[in-house]
Design a protein that fits this description.
The chain contains 26 helices and 26 strands. Bound molecules: adenosine-5'-triphosphate. One of its GO terms (biological process) is recombinational repair.
Length: about 775
């Protein structure tokens, strides 16, 4: 079809812009080559250009200055090389697709100017050929429709009129689609984008950010932003775009390492890891609560993951549920504080410091040192001081130790190198002391010190890390005494924990109280340089976890994203927002709701919202697609046959088909049968990446992810029977973008009773 004049003119502008970019890239590349050559040259001649002389102390100083100078020269070249490489990559992205929108804007009395918006700005001399999507003026594209608009510029609010709003789909420098729009962000563009297939990595939504999403992305006034949004409403996408926005807005003062994103699991981390690099930004720090906890607790105890705990609860093992609930409450968190306060006066449990099977500093001596300090000294302060004292004491002991027979025995086992070094040392000493006779004594002294130091180094580390504090015993002591501090905690709280410690693991529900006690005693670990904390899937955080995060990051701004309907603990109890306001303070807290689901077709969203008790507020995006299918089988063989047939059918039109089971155990059972018929990957653990094709995955690992087609493994009443599993079923169903099939082995779960019959087909 021939293009109209407008299209031709726009393509000419694309050609012009891309032409400029290509030219700049060529120039940059030749500079890159030159700098790379220089860096290589420095590396090749590094040792020729430094003067190495280690004979006298003065020479050593000179040599090290010379090495440092060369190293700095090299580092400077490598930095500028890295910087240029980054620019080249950005130009590559722009050359592929220079922009996605144009808005024409004028202020009163001025002529209308076209503003082109892309993923990064591009300037030719003084003229902006492309504006960054995060530039102040770009916000009118996301917020407004043609007509009067305003935006926040650095020097105040600007009023004006938007005369045109146009969207482009440009690939490889060619306009593939172009829409003029009167609505907010044109549905046509969104239709086009949402109609695509799923991928194993999350995509950026920069060209089609919606007005309500834009408000979250650009919010800079809230200290706590709480986003409650329906499944697929773009919470995670918005979080990542917001990070990109903040990095741009505060580019002189904010670095990606000062932002941390807590995500539900490693699989999810992997899934979102490409969004920021694709926008030309470095990734923020990404972690999971488990990863943080494991680093804090140390290798000696394996921290139980929420996923492991969920697996148990989904398999019906719930005997410790009540204790877990008490340990997850805010009261329990406060109880740790009360207990820690008492420790100021006495009661800390220490361990003996031992060497070669013998106590060298006893726990009683350590306690005496610790409690010799005035009560006004905080616990962490005292630990610091005691460690210093202990290190001194260790030094004294090590001198004694050097005289012992075992040292002599070990000296004999030392290699040639050590003796040579000892010889050199002895020579120097003799020169210094004008002493010609004590060579052997000096050599022995040197070697004995070396041996003892080596053997004592782990004790030194032990002391520096306060491992003489018997945290496990202390924590068990706290659990025993906790009923004094916590209402309703009558039963024994330590039984499961005690047994777990013996087996070398830390139960999930004990993780926060344990870490908090450790922190209150010895000081916390997290650096205070974090300015922004993002927490995704916030609905799955217990009150103690929230309180602990506040404690860890007292000066940071928080963005929390979640969906109570996807909560794995069910929706009972106090509303999470109230609790959060209690913990974080109401001041500058903002709650934003996202109600429209973009992930799924209208048919799927209409179906899944009916699974919920109160899903009325969820809206769907008008994208066509087949009705969900509920397929009932009379036996397990028949269910497997049905799943196999659906996978074969759906794979033809999908990149990804996910068969989602309730628990890992349920998936394992199905896997044995399905693998005979299908080529599929079983995602058992969070550490595996996400492949294309057909996968089998337990419900809680599929959180936050999406697939072209979803087949729910078994929606029978036997599998989903508990009211508390309603949210889980909703979470599973809402992973589907284009097709949803629910297979049931036997009668269908009553959790689907409320879904009107015209919203699905039964097969
Ligand atoms: N403005 C938008 N433009 C284009 N695509 C969008 C937009 N908003 C959301 N999407 C798409 O919708 C899908 C769901 O987004 P996302 O995963 O961020 O939602 P979520 O709210 O975190 O979902 P869930 O809670 O179900 O995990 C993604 O494919 C995302 O690209």
């Amino acid at each position: 079809m021939p293009h109209d004049e407008e299209w031709i003119q726009e393509q000419k502008r694309v050609d012009y812009t891309v032409g400029k970019m290509k030219k700049e890239k060529e120039e940059l590349l030749s500079k890159v080559r030159a700098v790379r050559g220089e860096a290589q040259e420095i590396r090749n001649t590094f040792w020729e250009d430094v003067t190495v002389n280690l004979d006298e102390p003065d020479d050593v100083v000179e040599t090290s200055a010379s090495v440092r100078q060369q190293a700095e020269l090299l580092a400077e070249r490598e930095r500028s090389y890295g910087h240029m490489e980054k620019n080249v990559k950005q130009l590559d992205r722009l050359i592929y697709s220079p922009y996605f929108a144009r808005v024409d804007f004028h202020e009163e009395g001025e002529t209308s100017e076209p503003i082109y918006i892309g993923t990064a700005s591009y300037r030719d001399e003084d003229e902006y050929l492309v504006y960054d999507w995060r530039a102040p003026i770009s916000s009118i594209y996301y917020d407004g429709v043609p007509g009067p608009v305003s935006y926040q510029a650095p020097d105040g609010r600007r009023e004006g009129v938007m005369d045109l709003k146009r969207q482009f789909l440009i690939r490889r420098g060619k306009i593939e689609a172009m829409f003029d729009t009167g609505l907010s962000i044109g549905d046509e563009m969104l239709q086009e984008i949402l109609g695509h297939h799923a991928s194993t990595h999350m995509k950026s939504i920069v060209a089609t950010i919606q007005k309500e999403q834009n408000r979250i992305i650009r919010d800079v006034s809230s200290n706590l932003l709480f986003v409650q949004g329906a499944a697929g409403s773009g919470k995670t996408s918005v979080a990542l775009q917001r990070i990109a926005y903040l990095l741009y807005r505060y580019r002189d003062s904010l670095h990606s390492e000062q932002i941390v994103l807590f995500s539900p699991n490693q699989l999810f981390n992997h899934y979102v890891s490409k969004v920021l690099p694709e926008l030309g930004e470095n990734n923020m720090q990404q972690t999971t609560f488990l990863e943080y906890a494991q680093a804090r607790v140390g290798k000696a105890l394996k921290v139980e993951s929420l996923l492991d705990q969920m697996e148990e609860s989904l398999e019906g093992k719930t005997e410790h549920k009540e204790t877990a609930q008490i340990k997850g409450s805010l009261e329990f968190f406060r109880a740790v504080e009360d207990y820690a306060k008492k420790l100021l006066e006495g009661g800390i449990i220490f361990r003996d410091i031992r060497f070669k099977g013998e106590t060298i500093i006893s726990k009683e001596d350590i306690a005496a040192m610790f409690y010799a300090y005035d009560e006004s000294y905080s616990l962490p302060n005292r630990f610091q001081l005691v460690s210093k004292q202990l290190l001194k004491e260790l030094e004294r002991i090590s001198k004694e130790e050097r005289k012992k027979p075992w040292v002599e025995e070990e000296i004999e086992l030392l290699g040639q190198e050590a003796f040579l070094a000892a010889h050199k040392y002895a020579e120097r000493k003799m020169r210094q002391n004008r002493d010609d006779f004590s060579g052997t004594a000096y050599e022995k002294e040197f070697l004995a010190r070396k041996i003892v130091n080596r053997r004592f180094s782990s004790i030194r580390k032990h002391i520096k890390q306060f491992r003489y504090f018997h945290i496990r015993a202390q924590y068990l002591d706290f659990l025993k005494k906790a009923p004094e501090f916590v209402r309703g905690a009558e039963g024994p709280l330590d039984a499961k924990t005690r047994a777990a410690f013996q087996e070398g693991w830390l139960p999930f529900e004990d993780t926060v109280p344990y870490m908090y006690l450790l922190d209150l005693a010895t000081g916390k670990m997290m650096s205070s340089s974090i300015k922004y904390v993002f927490i995704d899937e916030i609905q799955d955080y217990s009150p103690v976890q929230l309180a602990y995060l506040r404690y860890l990051f007292p000066y940071s701004k928080f963005t929390m994203l979640g969906d109570l309907n996807q909560s794995i603990f069910g929706t009972s109890g106090r509303p999470q927002m109230e609790l959060i306001k209690d913990i974080f303070g109401e001041e500058k807290a903002q709650v934003v709701y996202l109600t429209k689901s973009y992930r799924s077709t209208a048919a799927i969203t209409r179906f899944t919202k009916e699974i919920l008790q109160d899903g009325e507020k969820i809206e769907w995006f008008d994208r066509e697609g087949a009705l969900p299918v509920v397929a009932v089988a009379g036996s397990q063989e028949e269910a497997i046959a049905k799943i196999t047939a659906y996978v074969k059918k759906l794979s033809a039109e999908s990149n990804t088909v996910a068969i989602i089971g309730k628990s890992r155990k349920q998936c394992e059972e199905a896997y044995e049968k399905l693998r005979e018929e299908l080529d599929l990957t079983f995602i058992e653990k969070e550490y595996s990446g996400l492949p294309e094709g057909t996968i089998l995955i337990p419900s809680y690992l599929a959180k936050g992810l999406e697939f072209d087609s979803v087949i729910v493994l078994d929606v029978s009443a036997a599998t989903y029977h508990d009211e508390a599993e309603r949210n889980l079923l909703y979470t599973v169903g809402t992973r589907a973008m284009h097709n949803l099939v629910l297979v049931s082995n036997g009668p269908v779960t009553p959790l689907l009773d409320k879904v009107p019959e015209d919203l699905y087909v039964e097969e």
